[in-house]
Design goal:
Layout lengths: L8 H30 L4 H21 L9 H17 L13 E3 L2 E3 L1 H23 L10 H20 L4 H18 L3 H20 L2 H11 L10 H12 L25 H33 L4 H25 L17 H19 L5
Antiparallel strand pairs: 1-2
Helix pairs in contact: 1-2, 1-10, 2-12, 3-4, 3-5, 4-5, 4-6, 4-11, 4-12, 5-6, 6-11, 9-10, 10-11, 10-12, 11-12
Length: about 375
Amino acid sequence: MPRRLETDRWLFGVTIALCILGAVMIFSASAVTADSQYGHSYIFLARQAVWLIAGIFGMFALMRTDYRKLREPAVIYTTVCVVLLLLVGTFFLDKSHATHRWIKMGPANIQPSELAKLAVILYLAWFLDLQRRNAARMEFNQEDFLHTIFPATAPVLLIVGLIVAQPDLGTSVDILLVATAILFVAGLSWKWLAVGAAAALPILYFLITGVGYRNARLLAFLHPDADPQGAGFQLMQSLIAVGSGGFSGVGLMESKQKLFYLPEAHTDFIYAVISEELGFVGALLVLGLFAMYGWRGLRAAFNAPDNFGRLLATGITTLVLSQALINFAVVLGMVPTKGIPLPFVSYGGSSLLVMLLATGVLLNVSQQATEA
């Protein structure tokens, strides 16, 4: 008699809690701005709700789909090719916010770089699992470069290159972090990780210092008070919001910084509004929810019945945690400002949809776990 599959209630509950918190805080952070721009204070909340409903349906569908069906070559190749076509297609469309990041489909805007995150995880998990199953033991050495490391990393680097050209350096770095975690768990030695880091650091340095607005962000990060009304404005307003919250916050809907002081209050800097309105208690609660997500995600990876599930769970958990940590660090002034949304919480349909779909896969891996 087949074993009855049980959903990880902790992982599911944490995901829903983050989505509900996100919906509440999106309305709180955007109501005044939405009323000023569109004459309707609920416009951003309504748009997010549509994506949330679609994402939850997708999450439930993937929860009930055996994740091993995702390693079919037809699924992998189709996913990677569609993402590549969408990324290339953005360059033939009009710019939005001076970038080629979005594809407008009627009333909705699709961000292919968000879809690319899930495509990279699927591809690497499939390819590295295939190599593992085709060999008694998978060893990364110099003679395996052309047969293992290069075919594993080439599509990832192609996707990352297209995203850098949009330009979107933050998402590119996030994808590379996720890919590194998957490769390491798959057996990649520290030697190859060091080689990859040595090759990436000079490129990253050039991409930051060689581009005017990125260099300005770096200088604003180092000395935000040097230009508080210019390059350092967003970081200064974020720190003011976080500091104003105190221990228990100023109260829900009572934030001052969201009133046209803090740019992107309902998107990339929503954690600053949470810290101001809900205080240290609310900020710590959000950290705790993501810590719980990470614990249950890693538990699913450790208990996965096969290598494919282990790599999938590792990649998805790393994606959510790395993106959350980058967002926290940006809001708190620990790293230069980058447009990285807070998973499940920030306003943004593509990001929310991908995170929920990825969580659906993760929940299915946890259902198949070898331990109760």
